[in-house]
Amino acid sequence: MTKRVTKLGGLAASVLTLAATAYADVKINDNFSISGYAAASYEYQKWKGAKATDSLFDGTKDTPSADAVKTSLTANFKPVTGVISLYYVPNLPTNELTVLDAYVTYDVGNGTTITGGKFLSWMGYEAFDTPNMAQITYGAPTVGYLGAIPAYHSGVKAEYGDKDQGAGFAVVDSVYSPNGFAKGDGELKHNAGFETYYTYKAIQDFTFWAGLVYDTAGGFQPHSVWMGDVWVQYQVNKEIQVAAEVTDKNGGPAFKGWDWLLFLNYAATDKLSTVFRISGEQLSGATKAAALAGANPRSNYIQYTIGPSAKITDNLTVRAEVSFYNYKDTADKTFLGLQGIFKF
C-alpha cells in the first residue's frame, strides 16, 4: 500500500483558488471532453499504547487518493469510446505521475459493451476516486494485497446492463499486483486473473451487488487467490442512505480474512451531509501472525467513523473526519482529517 503523511499546502491552496472559477465538465468538441479532480488533505493520527521507537506506528497513512490530481480525456466516436487518464500523487515512493485508465470500449448495443486496455476493478463498495467517496478514509483495507478494491489491471471485459440488472466478466493480467494500485503484473504467461459481478436494482431505491475475483497461482502469486464481495444499498428517504458490505478473501495459508462495513449517510440539506460508519477486518491464522510480527501495523480491528461534508459549490467539496481504530492486538489509533476536493 502507499504510505505517506499528507499536508494541506500548495495543492489545497490551488483547489480553493480554482473554486472561484469553477465550471462544469470541459467539452472540447462533439468528440472530445476533459474531466478530473484535485484533492488535498491534512491528516493527523495518534497511536495509543505504541512504543515511541516502534517504526510501525510512525504516523504514516495509507489513503492512496488523499492528495491526488487526476485528469481524464474521453474520445467519443460512437459506437467506440476511448479513455486515457493521468494520475499524480505527490511524494509517492514509486512514480508520482502515472497513466491509470487507458482503454477502448465498443458498444455492441442492447446494453452490452466490450472493453480492452487498462481499467479499474469493479470490486468494492467504497470508491477508488476521491470525489466518489463520502468520507476521507476507507472502512477496511482496500487498495493493496487482498483489499476490497484491487484497483487497476489490464485485459478485456464484457458488461451487460439495463434498468433492472447488470453483469460483467473480465480476464486480466492479474487482479492483485506487486506493482501497487496503478497496474497489474503485466503478463499472462505465469498467471491470470478473473473478475465477475452481478447487480440487481429492480426494487426502487435498492441495489444489490455481488462480485468475485480469482488469481491463478504462478508468477508473484505462490497460491491461487480468490475474493468475494457483497454489498447492498438502500435510499431510505431523501435524507438517509444506508449500506452494508462483506468481503471474504483467501490467498493461501498466509492471507486469509474478511472485512465488513455498515454505512449511514444523513443529508441535512442539499449541501450538508454526515457519514456514520462502523467497519473492520478479521484476520485468521498465519495472516494475523504476520501482521503481529511486523508485516503491517494492523491486526483484527473495528473502526468507528464520523465524517461531515459541505458542498461549497458544484465543483468544490470540503470534508472532515474523525475515526477511531480499536485494534485487538496492537496499539489503538485516532485519526483526524480535513480534505478539499475540486472536480471538473
Topology:
Blueprint: H1 10-19, E1 26-27, E2 32-48, E3 68-77, E4 80-88, E5 97-109, E6 112-120, E7 152-161, E8 165-172, E9 193-200, E10 206-215, E11 225-235, E12 240-250, E13 256-267, E14 272-283, H2 285-295, E15 301-311, E16 316-327, E17 332-343
Antiparallel strand pairs: 1-2, 2-3, 2-17, 3-4, 4-5, 5-6, 6-7, 7-8, 8-9, 9-10, 10-11, 11-12, 12-13, 13-14, 14-15, 15-16, 16-17
CATH topology: Porin
Name the strands of the widest sheet in spatial order.
2-3-4-5-6-7-8-9-10-11-12-13-14-15-16-17
- Portion of residues within helices: under 10%
The tally of strands reads 17
pLDDT averaged residue by residue = 84
Evaluate the radius of gyration.
20 Å
CATH class label: Mainly Beta
Low-confidence stretches: 1-23
Distance linking N and C termini = 28 Å
Count of separate structural domains: 1
Q: Give the CATH superfamily.
A: Porin
**H/E element order:** HEEEEEEEEEEEEEEHEEE
